[in-house]
Structures are given as structure tokens and as C-alpha cells.
Design goal:
By secondary structure, the protein is an alpha+beta fold. It has helices at about 10-55, 120, and strands spanning about 55-65, 70-75, 85-90, 95-100, 110-115, 125-135, 140, 150. The strands form two sheets. Strands 3, 4, 6, 7 and 8 form a five-stranded antiparallel sheet that branches. Strands 1-2-5 form a three-stranded antiparallel sheet, with no helix packed on it. The termini are far apart. The mean pLDDT is about 90.
């Protein structure tokens, strides 16, 4: 019987080397996750700062026509940045509907926006709320603190 195996010293070295390799892989995996989270948090903070410091809108001449299911309004960008989109929340007697205006508005300019809504879903409109949307770190940020609440006329 001439059985040969690896020496205990070589087995120990291989085991320690394997453990170190696994620890290094876990370290690189974990630091990648941390970097992603830090970048994500940074973009959220940048978006919130942009909203609170440089976004301001004014909405005027709101007209709701329930017979045609349409809403028209003039929006002025009084802020210092381009507003990329607007979100409109329609609070009705029966339900809430959200609509996105895929239309940008340069700083200092005013435009008229119109949209249709489903009056059979919302019922009688009780309140409108307009939210400006800007882009920070290549992703849209809804500026909920800068929203404007309106009554339908």
C-alpha cells in the first residue's frame, strides 16, 4: 500500500489561499454596492436641491370643460432651470387620475397646456395639482414641494 496525498502544510496553504480569494471577491462585490448606493443618494440630493432652489412655477387661467373631458391651463416657468415634464393630479369626487404632460418649458417662458381626462373615472373634479419634473443625473425628479394646487373653473 503506497498511498500518497498532499502534505498537511500544503493543504493548510491552499485552504488559507482559498479563504483569502473568497474574502477579496466579497470585498470587491460589497464596495461596488456601496459605490452604487452613494451615487444614487447623491443624485437624489442633487434633484431635491435643484427642486427647492431653482424650480418655481405659476399656473394661471385654468379652464375645465367636463362635457369635453378637457383641462386647459397656462403655466409659467419662473425658475432658473428647464422643466422637462409636468405631472397633473386630478382629484375627483370618485377617484384620482394622474396625467403626464410630455412637454418642456424653458426658464422665463409661458405656455398653454391642455389634456383630456376620464370623467367617468374621476367624477366631478374637486382639485387639480400640477407638479414640475426636472432632470438630475439623467433621471427625472418630480418636485413635489413646488407643486401648485388649483380649483377647476
Amino acid at each position: 500500500m503506497n498511498k500518497k496525498g498532499i502534505s498537511p502544510l500544503l493543504a493548510t496553504v491552499l485552504l488559507i489561499g482559498f479563504a483569502i480569494a473568497i474574502a477579496v471577491l466579497i470585498y470587491f462585490w460589497y464596495t461596488g454596492i456601496i459605490k452604487q448606493e452613494v451615487a444614487k443618494q447623491g443624485c437624489e440630493i442633487e434633484g431635491k436641491n435643484l427642486c427647492t432652489q431653482q424650480v418655481e412655477i405659476q399656473v394661471s387661467s385654468v379652464q375645465c370643460t367636463p362635457e369635453l373631458n378637457t383641462i386647459r391651463m397656462r403655466i409659467e416657468n419662473r425658475g432658473q432651470v428647464l422643466i422637462n415634464d409636468f405631472r397633473l393630479k386630478i382629484r375627483g369626487k370618485d377617484n384620482i387620475e394622474s396625467i403626464t404632460f410630455s412637454k418642456s418649458l424653458n426658464q422665463g417662458s409661458t405656455e398653454e397646456f391642455s389634456t383630456t381626462y376620464d370623467s367617468s373615472n374621476t367624477g366631478t373634479i374637486e382639485e387639480l395639482e400640477v407638479f414640475p419634473v426636472v432632470v438630475a443625473c439623467n433621471s427625472p425628479v418630480t418636485c413635489s414641494q413646488q407643486s401648485v394646487k388649483l380649483d377647476c373653473q
